[in-house]
Specification:
This protein has 1488 residues and is mainly beta. Helices cover 9% and strands 32% of the residues. It has an 11-stranded mixed β-barrel. Strands 1, 6, 7, 8, 9, 10, 18 and 19 form an 8-stranded antiparallel beta sheet that branches. The longest helix has 17 residues, at 2-18.
C-alpha cells in the first residue's frame, strides 16, 4: 500500500512539473498595427518592399542586410522570383528561404493579413533570449535585434467553381528571428487551432486531386563555386508529409507544443541548421490536488523584466475592467520554469484561482504605512519574470515559505519572505548617480544629492533635457485614414521653468492640421519635467525613464476617439529619454491654414502604487477662413503605469495639480512639422493662487538663471542660481564640465570615457563587456560561443581569441577541411546532424534518414518509431501519396502508383493519429469507392449530418441535428438569409440558447428582419431597415409606447444628435465638466445655452453657434436671447494688411520677436502710414498698398513723419534701399522666403561671387517665380500675403500687387510671354487660374480632379500648359492647351512627389524632378521617349532648363544645384543665409 501511494505521488508530481499545453494565440509574440507592424499588400503572390535591417543578420555563414516577406509563408534575404518558380516545388529552393509554412497562400479579398516589423524592444529581446536558453541551455546568447513576421488567418489559394464555394480553413503562424553580431536563432510559432490546412493544391494540377504538404525549414540557396558554376547549398527540412505538418502545433522542441527553435546562422563557422532538442508533446494533464514539492533549487528573477514595453501592451484604452480570475499566468510560469527548477507556487492553489503576484512587487508586511486602494476600474498588470544574470542559490536546494495575509480594506496582498533582494546582489539596477539602500524586505534606489528621478534613472537638477522617439499608428481624419510610419519626435524641456517644446516631423496633411488640438501628446513631457512648486514632485521624480502612458481622447460633438500610447524605454547613450508614441483612432477635420487656440487649464493627478491617473475636459477654438470661429471640446482619460519600489518609504503623494499656463500649437505646412509648446508647473491640490507679487521668481519663471542652472528660492523674492550637476559657472552662465578631460570620470580598466552634456558614460573596449555590477569591464570569453570549427581549437585571450585547426585538418580555424577523403553527402550530413543531437544516438521518437553505400538517400524511407514508410526523391523529399501506415504493404518506390485522393488523405491522417483507430469524439470523413467525398457526411459521435462539395467543404444551411430528417444532398436548398445567419450565429455561441443579456434579432417567415426589433433583456425597441440597421430616432425606452415602424418617423435633429452623442460618452450621464446643449420640444437649440459646471451662459443661433458678445459669467444678469443683437449692416472682408498680418503671426508661431516684421493696420484694416520692425526705431513710410515710400527709412529715435496712406507722392520714385540693380547678362532668379536672389551665369557656370539680393520683401514668403523677357519683369506668388506681385528689373522700379483677392495658397506660377497671360496654381482650393499680366480677365481653368497641384510651366511657342499634382495616393503630371482644352495625363506611373517642372526647349521635352523617387526625368509631350537624367537627387523643389543645363533648388542642401544634361558635371551654390529656397527661373538679357 505504501509503495502504491509513493508511486501515485511521483506520477502526480511528474504530471504537475512536466504538463505542457499548446501555445495559445495570445501567447505568441505581439503583432499588428498597434505594435507598429507593416501590413503586406493583399494578394496571391505579393512580396514586401525591401526591408533594410538596422544591423546585419547572419543566415548560415553569410551576413545579410535586407529581408523580404512573401505571401506564401516565407522570409527571404533576396528579392523573390514569381511564385510558380518555387511554390509548388519541394525543398530546397534555389534562393535563400526561411519558411515557417511554405505553401500557396492567398490573402486577396480580405482573406487574412500578414504583418512584419523590426524591433529592438527590450521585452521582446529578453523573451527571445529566454526562449533560446530553453532550447540551448549551454548557449550564451543575448540578442540585440529581432524581426517578427506573422501570418494571421490566411487562406490557401483555391480555384473556385460553380459547384464549390470557398474553404473556411485558415492558418495563423509566426516567425521570430533574434540575432546579434555573431548568431541568429529562428523561432517558428504555431498556436493552438492555428493550422487548419496543411498543404495546398498546385495551380497546374490538371484536375488531379493532389495536395502538396507545406514545406517548413531553411535553405541557403544555390552557391557559386569556381567562376561560372553553381551548386545546391545546405538546407534543413522540418516537414516531409502532412502528419509532420500537423506535428508543428502538436509538438515542439523547447518544451512547449507549437514552439520550434533553430540555430540558423553564425559569424565564424556554420555547416547547417541545428534544432533545439527539448521535445514537447501536446497532452492533457489530470487534475492534481495538494501536491507537496521536495526541496529544489530556486533561481531568483531579474526585476528588470517588469519594464513595461510597447510590444507587450494590450491595445486597449483607459476604460479599465477588473481582471477575470484564471490561472493562465501561473501555467505560463510553470511552462517557462527551467528543467530541474520549481516554478513559484503558493502553498495551496486550485483550478480557477488567480495566480499570486511576485512578492517583490507588493508592499512588505512589516512596513507600516497607509496603503491607498486602487481605483475601481484599475488593473494591475503582472509580467512573467525570466532568469538573467542572477547568481543561483547554493547547491542542495532550499525551501522558502510564503505567508499570505489579505488586507480586505486596501485590496493589497502582503507577503513575507526570507529570500529578499539586497543591494549587494542588485545594486547594478540603480543609476550611477544614485545610492542603494537595504530595507527589511528588499532594496530601493535613491538619487544622489543634486539629481532627481526614481533612483533607477537620475538626471541632474536644473539641466535641460531632451526626448527622442518615433510616432506610429493610423489616424482617421474626415473619412481618410492616414498612416504614420515611424516619424520622428523630438522634445526639448527647459526644466528650470517647466517649458516643454515638442516637434513631430514629416507629418502629412491633413493629419498635421487635425492633430493640432491633441496637445496631450506633448503634455506628457510637460508633466514629466514640470516646474516643481513646494511640496510636490514632477513625473520623472516618480516614474523614472521606464513607464507606459495611455490616454483616451474623445472629441465632442463628433464623438471622435483617439487612443495615445506612449512608452518610455529608458535613457539612451546620450542620457536622453526614449519615448515611442502610438496613435490609433479618429480626430475632427480641421481646414488647412486654420489656427487652434487653447486656454490655460489645470489637471488633477491621482497617485497609487505603480499607477497614476487623471481625467479632464478641455475646450479649444478653431479659427479658419472657411468656418470662422468654432469651439470644440475633448475629454482626456489617462493612466500611467510604472515600477514602484515597495520596500522603502513612499512619497505619500495622493493628489497633485498640474497647471498648464501657456499652450501654443501650430502646424508648419511647408516643413510638415507639428509643434506643441506648453509651460507647466506642478503643485499640491487646492493650494490656491497666490498674488503675483508674492510668488518667488523660481516658481513664476521670472528669473535670469541659465537654462542649465537650477533656481534656488530664498526668502520672499530672493533667489540664487546654481549650475546643474556636471556644469560649472555662476548660475547665470553655465558651461559643461568635461569629466573625461579633467579626470573626473569613474571609468575603470579596459574602458574609455565618453563625455555627455552634464555627465559622462563609460564604454568597454572591444572584446570586453560590463560585468554583473554593470560598471566593471571584464574580458569576453569568445570561446564559450564556440566560434571555431568543430575540428579546431579555440584559445581565449584578453579582448580577443584565436582559432587553430586540429592535426590532420587545414584551414583558418573557422573553416577546417580534412587533408584527404570524400566530403560527406547531403544525406550523410542530414543523418549525422540528427544523430549528433544526442551524442550520436538517434533521437527517441525522431526520424533518422537512411543512406546507401554512396551516401545517397535510399528510395524508401521508414520511421523507426512509428513504422510509417514512404518514397523519397534524390533530395530526400517525400513523394506525395506514397506513405503507408504500419502493418500495411509498402509501396514499390521504383514504380509509380495512384496517389491517394484528398478525401483518403484526410481520412487516413485523422485515423493515423491513433494508430489507425478513429479518434474518440472526432469526425472521420467518409469516401466513396473512387476516393471522393460522399455528398452527405455524418458525425459518428454527435449524430449531426450535412452536405459537402467535391472538396469536402460543408454547404451552408444543410446541417441537421440528430433525430431529424436529413437533407437530400443531391437537391439544392434555400440558403439562410442574412437575418437568419445573424440570429443563428449569436445563438450558436451558446449551444442554440440565446446569450444572457445579448440581443437576438427577430426574423419573419421569409427570413427577413422584422421591421421592429426589441431587446429581450433591456426592453428597448426600435425600427430597422431591410438590412437590420437601426433607423435613427426610433428607439424607445422600456415601458413607453413603441413607434409604428411601418410609418416614417421624425429623425433626430442636429441638437438632439449633439446632446445624445455627449451623453452617451458615459452611459447616458452628462460628462463631468463637459457642456451638454439644451434642445426645445421640437429638437431645436434653445436660444440661450448655459454650461452646467462653469455657470457661463450665452445666446446661440439656429445651428447652435454662439452669437458674438452674448456670453455672461456666472452670477451676472443673463442676456435676453430673443432680442436681436445689433451688428453692423455689412461685414467687411479682411483687408490685405489684416490677411498679411494674420499669416505672418502664424508663421512666427504667434510669438513674434523684435527681429520679426508685422504689418501695423489701423481700425479700418488699412496700413498705418508708419511701419516698424517690432518695437525698434527702424521704421519707414508706406503707401495704401503697404509699399515702402522711397527715402523714408530711419533708424533714429524719432520716427519718420509720414503722410496718411493716400496716393503716393507725385515725384519720380527713387531706388529703394533694399533693392539692388541686377548685373548684366543671363541671370538665375530664385525665391528664398522674404527675398528674391540673383545668381549671374557665365555661360552655363554659376558666378557665385557676383550673387546678390535682388529684392527684399519683408514679411513675405515668395514661392513661385517666373520672368517676362519682353518687359523685363519678374512675377512671384506671396504665400504670406496671399498675393501675386511683379516688379521690373529696371533701377528705381517698385513692386506691384496685381492680384490680392480670393487667393489661399498660391504656389507655382508661369508667364506666357507670347499671349501676355499669367497662370498659377492654388493648392488649398486645388485649382488652376489664369489672368492677363496686369491681373485683369481672371478666370478658373481647372478646379476638378486636383489634389495637391504644385508646379506649372507654359510652352509659349506651342501654347501648351503643363503642371504637377503630387497627390500622394496618385501623383501625376498633366497637360492642356492654354485655353483649358485637351486636358490629359502625361505621366502617372513611377513618380512620387513631382515638385519641380521645366521645359527643355533644346530637346523639346518636359522634365521633372521628383522628391519622392529622387530622380530627374524627361519625356516627350506625346508621352514617348521617357528617360532618366539623374537618379540620386536629394529634395528638389523647383527647376528651370537653360542651354544644356538644369538648375534646381534643393531643400536638403538649401541651395541651387546645377546639372548638365549629359549628367557629366554638377555644381552647387549655397547662399550665406541658410533657409529653404523655393521657385527658380532664368532671366536672359533678351527673349530667346
Amino acid at each position: 500500500m505504501t509503495w502504491g501511494k509513493t508511486t501515485l505521488f511521483f506520477l502526480q508530481l511528474f504530471w504537475t512539473v512536466h504538463h505542457v499545453t499548446a501555445i495559445h494565440r495570445h501567447d505568441i509574440y505581439p503583432y499588428g498595427m498597434f505594435y507598429g507592424d507593416v501590413t503586406l499588400q493583399e494578394g496571391d503572390d505579393e512580396t514586401s518592399e525591401v526591408i533594410t535591417l538596422t544591423k546585419p543578420m547572419y543566415f548560415y555563414e553569410a551576413s545579410f542586410t535586407i529581408l523580404y516577406v512573401a505571401t506564401n509563408g516565407i522570409v527571404s534575404t533576396q528579392d523573390l522570383p514569381m511564385e510558380k518558380q518555387y511554390v509548388d516545388d519541394g525543398f530546397p529552393t534555389d534562393f535563400p528561404v526561411i519558411a515557417p509554412f511554405l505553401a500557396d497562400i492567398d490573402t486577396s479579398k480580405g482573406k487574412g493579413s500578414i504583418f512584419y516589423r523590426q524591433t529592438e524592444s527590450p521585452t521582446v529581446l529578453k523573451r527571445a533570449e529566454a526562449d533560446v536558453r530553453r532550447g540551448f541551455p549551454d548557449a550564451t546568447f543575448t540578442p540585440t535585434h529581432a524581426f517578427i513576421a506573422t501570418w494571421e488567418n490566411v487562406s490557401a489559394y483555391e480555384e473556385l467553381t460553380r459547384s464549390s464555394g470557398p474553404s473556411n480553413r485558415i492558418n495563423t503562424f509566426q516567425v521570430v528571428l533574434a540575432y546579434n553580431e555573431k548568431d541568429t536563432y529562428a523561432l517558428f510559432l504555431y498556436p493552438e487551432d492555428g493550422l487548419q490546412f496543411f498543404g495546398t493544391r498546385p495551380k497546374e494540377s490538371y484536375n488531379v486531386e493532389i495536395e502538396l504538404p507545406a514545406r517548413v525549414g531553411f535553405t541557403r540557396g544555390e552557391l557559386s563555386y569556381f567562376f561560372f558554376s553553381r551548386t545546391e547549398g545546405p538546407y534543413y527540412s522540418v516537414t516531409s508529409n502532412e502528419q509532420s505538418v500537423k506535428n508543428l502545433y502538436q509538438k515542439g522542441n523547447i518544451g512547449e507544443p507549437g514552439v520550434w527553435l533553430f540555430h540558423v546562422g553564425n559569424r565564424y563557422s556554420f555547416q547547417n541548421v541545428v534544432p533545439a532538442q527539448h521535445e514537447a508533446v501536446l497532452t492533457k494533464a489530470p487534475p492534481v490536488r495538494d501536491a507537496v514539492f521536495p526541496d529544489e533549487d530556486y533561481t531568483d528573477t531579474d526585476e528588470d523584466e517588469y519594464s513595461i514595453d510597447p510590444d507587450f501592451q494590450e491595445p486597449t484604452t483607459t476604460e479599465f475592467h477588473e481582471p477575470e480570475q484564471d490561472s493562465s499566468l501561473l501555467e505560463r510560469l510553470n511552462q517557462e520554469a527551467p528543467f530541474g527548477q520549481s516554478p513559484l507556487q503558493p502553498s495551496v492553489s486550485g483550478p480557477g484561482e488567480f495566480p499570486h503576484p511576485d512578492p517583490r512587487n507588493l508592499p512588505p508586511e512589516d512596513v507600516t504605512q497607509p496603503q491607498r486602494p486602487l481605483p475601481k476600474h484599475a488593473i494591475l498588470q503582472v509580467y512573467p519574470n525570466r532568469v538573467k544574470d542572477v547568481p543561483p542559490h547554493p547547491s542542495g536546494g532550499q525551501v522558502f515559505s510564503v505567508e499570505e495575509k489579505v488586507n480586505f480594506d486596501s485590496g493589497v496582498i502582503h507577503y513575507s519572505t526570507d529570500n529578499k533582494e539586497t543591494c549587494e546582489r542588485f545594486q547594478q539596477h540603480c543609476s550611477q548617480n544614485a545610492h542603494c539602500t537595504d530595507y527589511s524586505t528588499g532594496f530601493c534606489c535613491h538619487c544622489n544629492s543634486g539629481f532627481y528621478g526614481n533612483g533607477r534613472h537620475c538626471l541632474p537638477n536644473g539641466a535641460p533635457h531632451r526626448v527622442n522617439g518615433k510616432v506610429r499608428g493610423t489616424v482617421l481624419v474626415g473619412g481618410t485614414a492616414v498612416r504614420l510610419d515611424s516619424i520622428d519626435l523630438h522634445a526639448y524641456i527647459v526644466v528650470g521653468d517647466g517649458r516643454a517644446y515638442t516637434a513631430i516631423s514629416e507629418v502629412p496633411e491633413p493629419v498635421g492640421w487635425a492633430l493640432m488640438p491633441v496637445a496631450p501628446i506633448g503634455g506628457l513631457f510637460g508633466w514629466l519635467f514640470a516646474l516643481q512648486l513646494p511640496n510636490s514632485l514632477n513625473g520623472f521624480s516618480i516614474t523614472g525613464a521606464e513607464f507606459t502612458r495611455r490616454a483616451d481622447v474623445t472629441f465632442y460633438p463628433g464623438n471622435q476617439r483617439l487612443s495615445i500610447v506612449q512608452t518610455a524605454t529608458g535613457l539612451d547613450t546620450q542620457n536622453y529619454l526614449n519615448v515611442d508614441t502610438h496613435l490609433q483612432g479618429s480626430v475632427p477635420f480641421i481646414p488647412p491654414g486654420a489656427t487652434v487656440q487653447m486656454e490655460p487649464f489645470k489637471d488633477t493627478y491621482q497617485y497609487y502604487p505603480s499607477l497614476i491617473t487623471s481625467s479632464s475636459a478641455r475646450e479649444f477654438t478653431i479659427r479658419s477662413a472657411e468656418n470662422g470661429e468654432e469651439t470644440l471640446t475633448f475629454q482626456v482619460k489617462q493612466n500611467i503605469t510604472y515600477r514602484d519600489c515597495s520596500h522603502g518609504h513612499r512619497s505619500g503623494l495622493e493628489t497633485q495639480e498640474l497647471r498648464m499656463e501657456r499652450i501654443f500649437v501650430m502646424y508648419v505646412k511647408e516643413e510638415h512639422i507639428l509643434r506643441y509648446a506648453i509651460t507647466n508647473k506642478i503643485g499640491p491640490l487646492g493650494a490656491g493662487e497666490p498674488e503675483p507679487e508674492n510668488v518667488n521668481p523660481c516658481y513664476s519663471g521670472n528669473h535670469d538663471c541659465d537654462t542649465t542652472a537650477q533656481c534656488v528660492p530664498g526668502e520672499g523674492q530672493l533667489f540664487s542660481c546654481q549650475c546643474a550637476t556636471g556644469y560649472s559657472g555662476d548660475g547665470h552662465n553655465c558651461y559643461d564640465v568635461d569629466e573625461c578631460a579633467e579626470g573626473l570620470s569613474s571609468c575603470g580598466a579596459h574602458s574609455h570615457c565618453v563625455n555627455l552634456p552634464g555627465s559622462h558614460r563609460c564604454q568597454c573596449e572591444s572584446g570586453f563587456e560590463f560585468g554583473f555590477d554593470g560598471r566593471t569591464c571584464q574580458d569576453v570569453d569568445e570561446c564559450r560561443d564556440q566560434p571555431c570549427h568543430a575540428q579546431a581549437f579555440c584559445s581565449n585571450g584578453p579582448g580577443s581569441f584565436q582559432c587553430q585547426c586540429q592535426t590532420g585538418y587545414h584551414g583558418d580555424g573557422f573553416q577546417c577541411h580534412p587533408q584527404n577523403g570524400r566530403p560527406k553527402t547531403h544525406c550523410e550530413q542530414h543523418r549525422d546532424s540528427l544523430q549528433s543531437g544526442n551524442g550520436g544516438v538517434p533521437l527517441v521518437g525522431g526520424f533518422i534518414p537512411q543512406c546507401d553505400e554512396e551516401g545517397q538517400y535510399r528510395s524508401q524511407q521508414c520511421h523507426g518509431s512509428t513504422g510509417h514508410c514512404w518514397c523519397v526523391d534524390s533530395r530526400g523529399q517525400e513523394r506525395a501519396g506514397t506513405r503507408t501506415p504500419p502493418g500495411t504493404p509498402r509501396m514499390n518506390c521504383d514504380e509509380p502508383g495512384r496517389p491517394k485522393t484528398n478525401c483518403e488523405q484526410h481520412r487516413d491522417s485523422l485515423q493515423s493519429g491513433n494508430s489507425g483507430v478513429s479518434l474518440v469524439g472526432g469526425f472521420i470523413p467518409q469516401c466513396d469507392e473512387e476516393g471522393q467525398y460522399r455528398s452527405q457526411q455524418c458525425h459518428g459521435s454527435t449524430g449531426h449530418c450535412w452536405c459537402v462539395d467535391s472538396r469536402g467543404q460543408e454547404r451552408a444551411g444543410t446541417r441537421t441535428p440528430p433525430g431529424t430528417p436529413t437533407i437530400n444532398c443531391d437537391e439544392p436548398g434555400r440558403p439562410k438569409t442574412h437575418c437568419e445567419q445573424h440570429r443563428d450565429s449569436i445563438q450558436s455561441e451558446s449551444g442554440g440558447v440565446p446569450l444572457v443579456g445579448a440581443f437576438i434579432p427577430q426574423c419573419d417567415e421569409e427570413g427577413q428582419y422584422r421591421s421592429q426589433q426589441c431587446h429581450g433583456s433591456t426592453g428597448r425597441c426600435w425600427c430597422v431597415d431591410s438590412r437590420g440597421q437601426e433607423r435613427a430616432g426610433t428607439r424607445t425606452p422600456p415601458g413607453t409606447p413603441t413607434i409604428n415602424c411601418d410609418e416614417p418617423g421624425r429623425p433626430k435633429t442636429h441638437c438632439e444628435q449633439h446632446r445624445d452623442s455627449l451623453q452617451s460618452g458615459n452611459g447616458g450621464v452628462p460628462l463631468v465638466g463637459g457642456f451638454i446643449p439644451q434642445c426645445d420640444g421640437e429638437g431645436q437649440y434653445r436660444s440661450q445655452q448655459c454650461h452646467g459646471s462653469t455657470g457661463h451662459c450665452w445666446c446661440v443661433d439656429s445651428r447652435g453657434q454662439e452669437r458674438a458678445g452674448t456670453r455672461t459669467p456666472p452670477g451676472t444678469l443673463r442676456r435676453n436671447c430673443d432680442e436681436p443683437v445689433i451688428v453692423p449692416p455689412t461685414q467687411r472682408p479682411e483687408t490685405v494688411c489684416e490677411r498679411w498680418r494674420a499669416s505672418l503671426m502664424q508663421q512666427y508661431g504667434g510669438q513674434p520677436n523684435s527681429q520679426h516684421y508685422l504689418p501695423q493696420c489701423d481700425s479700418s484694416g488699412e496700413f498705418n502710414p508708419v511701419q516698424c520692425y517690432g518695437d525698434s526705431s527702424y521704421c519707414w513710410c508706406v503707401d495704401r498698398n503697404g509699399r515702402e515710400v522711397p527715402g523714408t527709412r530711419s533708424q533714429n529715435a524719432v520716427k519718420p513723419a509720414c503722410i496718411p496712406t493716400v496716393a503716393p507722392p507725385t515725384m519720380r520714385p527713387l531706388p529703394r534701399p533694399d533693392m539692388t540693380p541686377p548685373p548684366a547678362g543671363t541671370l538665375l532668379l530664385y525665391a528664398q522666403g522674404q527675398q528674391i536672389g540673383v545668381l549671374p551665369l557665365n555661360g552655363t557656370q554659376m558666378d557665385k561671387q557676383r550673387s546678390s539680393v535682388l529684392l527684399a520683401l519683408h514679411g513675405s514668403i515668395v514661392v513661385g517665380i517666373d520672368y517676362d523677357c519682353r518687359e523685363r519683369k519678374v512675377y512671384w506668388t506671396d504665400l504670406a500675403g496671399r498675393t501675386i506681385n511683379r516688379a521690373s528689373l529696371e533701377p528705381g522700379s517698385e513692386s506691384e500687387i496685381i492680384i490680392n483677392t480670393a487667393l489661399m495658397s498660391p504656389e507655382g506660377l508661369a508667364v506666357d510671354v507670347a499671349r501676355r497671360r499669367l497662370f498659377w496654381v492654388d493648392s488649398t482650393p486645388d485649382k488652376i487660374e489664369t489672368a492677363n499680366l496686369d491681373g485683369s480677365d481672371r478666370r478658373v481653368l481647372f478646379e476638378k480632379d486636383l489634389v495637391n497641384p504644385r508646379a506649372i510651366i507654359v510652352d509659349s511657342p506651342t501654347g501648351t500648359l503643363y503642371w504637377t499634382d503630387w497627390n500622394r495616393e496618385a501623383p501625376k503630371i498633366e497637360s492642356s492647351s492654354v485655353d483649358g482644352q485637351n486636358r490629359r495625363v502625361l505621366v502617372q506611373d513611377g513618380i512620387g512627389l513631382p515638385n519641380a517642372l521645366a521645359y527643355d526647349s533644346t530637346t523639346r521635352q518636359v522634365c521633372w524632378a521628383d522628391a519622392g523617387t529622387k530622380r530627374l526625368e524627361c519625356i516627350s509631350p506625346n508621352g514617348t521617349g521617357r528617360r532618366v537624367v539623374q537618379s540620386n537627387l536629394n529634395y528638389p523643389f523647383s527647376m528651370v532648363s537653360f542651354a544644356n543645363h538644369y538648375y534646381y533648388t534643393d531643400w536638403r542642401r538649401d541651395g541651387v544645384i546645377a546639372l548638365s544634361r549629359d549628367n557629366q558635371s554638377t555644381d552647387e551654390y549655397l547662399p550665406d543665409q541658410r533657409s529653404h529656397l523655393y521657385g527658380i527661373t532664368v532671366a536672359p538679357p533678351h527673349c530667346l
